[in-house]
Amino acid sequence: MESIFHEKQEGSLCAQHCLNNLLQGEYFSPVELSSIAHQLDEEERMRMAEGGVTSEDYRTFLQQPSGNMDDSGFFSIQVISNALKVWGLELILFNSPEYQRLRIDPINERSFICNYKEHWFTVRKLGKQWFNLNSLLTGPELISDTYLALFLAQLQQEGYSIFVVKGDLPDCEADQLLQMIKVQQMHRPKLIGEELAQLKEQSVLKADLERVLEAADGAGILDEDEDDLQRALAISRQEIDMEDEEADLRRAIQLSMQGSSRSMSQDSPQTSSTSLTSEELRKRREAYFEKQHQQQEVDRPRQLSSARERPTTSSGELGNSQAGDAVSEDILRAAGTMSLENTKDNLKAEGKK
């Protein structure tokens, strides 16, 4: 298929593409076809002038645009016919009464030129196979022998004018190559407009897919952010619970101290006999501080992690604040414990009375 010459549509130059695809080469250009059209226009003007250059018909003819070409690149059947005469080729209308009387099987012809609404294209036999060389297709379309007559009949029903090309076509590489081999076509070529529409659709689908993937990535990021937020909230709740526990402890210690002071004021005569010795108080303080030290060793990694996450204004201020709070809490808890112990001893003493 690569050896087949196939010009694709450019503008409205279908007549040029039709001729070059028929002849299998770049034989004609728009300039050459325009020259043929101007020559035809001049011949028509000279015939009209024979009736008098002052006649109404002649003046009307001069005011009308050319019937052989226009600015878009369209060329008439007369231009195509005259261009083929250079190669000794002739066009005969396929569905004319004269041709129908001959009852020639289309498969025995060599090529056809088809026209509908100012569009021209070629159907030609190369080697032993037929090809639709329409310039609106993305490539040559293989037509089987059995389908050829049906294809031409379908074109006629659609309003196409079909011309048989009579004469010997110039030799071409594709014809020589396809005389020896036959080609197979797995997929029929699409119209150029359909291919562009398909490419556009694929581009739109690709853009939609990228947006969906971006949205999915965004959702994943949102999920990660949400997880971080949930973890932060959990840590915050733990800190609040700890602060609440510490507040409850302070209140209990204060109440215990108040209760101890009331008990000591009421039973002042017996206090000296039931109070702990200094050695016992020292041992209990040491045991309490040892327990506090162990608890601090357990809690230190969490406190360090929390300190890294929280913004700080001054490392010195933070250190002093934390140290001061720790000392205050230790003293407060020690005093509370001592007060609780004293209260218990006082209660025991009262019970013995």
TrEMBL record:
Low complexity composition-biased segments: 257-278
Compositional bias ranges of the Basic and acidic residues kind: 279-311
Amino acid composition bias (Polar residues), ranges on this chain: 312-323
Active site (record annotation): 14, 119, 134
Domain Josephin: 1-180
Uppermost EC category: hydrolase
Topology with respect to the bilayer: Peripheral membrane protein
Annotated stretches, region: Disordered: 257-329
Location within or outside the cell: Lysosome membrane; Nucleus matrix
Keywords: Hydrolase, Lysosome, Nucleus, Protease, Repeat, Thiol protease, Transcription, Transcription regulation, Ubl conjugation pathway
GO cellular component: lysosomal membrane; nuclear matrix
InterPro entries, per the entry: Ataxin-3, Josephin, UIM_dom
Subunit structure, interactors included: Interacts with STUB1/CHIP (when monoubiquitinated). Interacts with DNA repair proteins RAD23A and RAD23B. Interacts with BECN1 (via its poly-Gln domain). Interacts with PRKN, UBR2, VCP and tubulin.
Functional note: Deubiquitinating enzyme involved in protein homeostasis maintenance, transcription, cytoskeleton regulation, myogenesis and degradation of misfolded chaperone substrates. Binds long polyubiquitin chains and trims them, while it has weak or no activity against chains of 4 or less ubiquitins. Involved in degradation of misfolded chaperone substrates via its interaction with STUB1/CHIP: recruited to monoubiquitinated STUB1/CHIP, and restricts the length of ubiquitin chain attached to STUB1/CHIP substrates and preventing further chain extension.
Protein name: Ataxin-3
Organism this protein belongs to: Mesocricetus auratus
